[in-house]
Amino acid sequence: MESSSPFRSDILRGKVALLTGGGSGIGFEISTQFGKHGASIAIMGRRSSVVQSAVSTLQSLGIPAVGFQGDVRKQEDAKRVVESTVKHFGKLDILVNAAAGNFLVSPEDLSPNGFRTVLDIDSVGTFTMCHEALKYLKKGGPGRSPSSSGGTILNISATLHYTASWYQIHVAAAKAAVDAVTRNLALEWGTDYDIRVNGIAPGPIGDTTGLSKLLPQEMDGSNRDHVPLYKVGEKWDIAMAALYISSDAGKYVNGTTMIVDGGLWLSHPRYLHKDAVKELSRTVEKRSRDAPVGVPSSKL
Ligand code: COA
Fold it and tell me: What's the pLDDT tens digit per position in 86-136?
């Protein structure tokens, strides 16, 4: 059952948010909570059917919402979607980069192109969206009132690169780059354009593709017990952190990546025998391949 929000329902009133990967998983929960707290929502995603269904759900909740098909790996898509969002809603206040790619593979079986693909989505895609959104987010940009501050950027990251993770070398490298983008833009665009740039690093969050891949049900009773709070998080937990950071509550927060993981990363990664990792990843990837497109991750 979803918890109610501890925030006032108007903390994002009048704001326009664009979310990549905003049609499913954690991205969709952030879209929904931003909308419930007063924001107008634009969703960008690779799959039109997922984007359209997310937009319909938001609209049925009375949230002004629009969707655009697009791939963050294509600069022309990023530019078109940012411009279309501003055309539709008149301005842009919040950019959330939640689009990500993930699959389990050992470094020896990962081709350089597979490594590059995830960096292209997570790291280059995040930078590309920021780059295209800059002119609208900066203080005094088109659609912004002269008295209002610059906009904000929120990059969804991870914790797996703080230590090391089996079969995740490409994702760890990609998220390390995302964190660097967050810090460097916070410094440079905070100074020059009054734009705040932050991140959130979710830990194990229930009912997500990430959890079904990184902490599959086959691991129940073993790795899940290693979360200091003894439970996985909810997408709601990430959305509440996103609300805090992206609203005026977080107006002095710039350049941080907030870890929302119940303290998991503080525990040493459990050593798994490589044969066990291989076996698990085969099961997980097969399940993900066999699932029809658009199936909720809870069903994987
Ligand atoms: N194992 C190993 N390599 C893989 C792979 C897997 N499961 N999936 C993709 N790759 C490699 C491909 O082999 C290819 O490299 P190659 O040309 O050297 O063979 C490269 O990655 C590109 O693959 P392709 O299928 O053409 O890319 P794509 O653009 O269609 O999709 C992803 C790539 C990452 C987006 C796709 O695998 C995906 O949708 N993953 C799930 C998204 C996800 O989990 N999101 C939630 C994140 S927590």
Answer: 999 999 999 999 999 999 999 999 999 999 999 999 999 999 999 999 999
Neighbours of 80 (CB within 10 A): 16
In the prediction, which pLDDT does 57 show?
98
The identity of residue 15, as a single letter, is K
User: What is the reported pTM?
Assistant: 0.92
Residue 270, both tokens: 């459990």
CA of 251 to the centre of ligand 1 (A): 37
**Which ligand 1 atom lies nearest to the CA of residue 288?**
41
Q: Which CATH class is domain 16-269?
A: alpha beta
Alpha-carbon distances of 36 from 10, 11, 64, rounded to whole Å: 8, 10, 10
The closest of 228, 205, 223, 227 to 272, measured between CA atoms, is 223
**Ligand 1 mean position, distance from CA 47 (Å):** 15
CA atoms within 13 A of residue 171's CA, in its CB half-sphere: 23
User: If residue 27 lies in a helix (H) or strand (E), which one and from where to where?
Assistant: helix 25-36
259 beta partners: 201
Q: Is the distance from the beta carbon of residue 106 to the nearest atom of ligand 1 less than 6 Å?
A: no
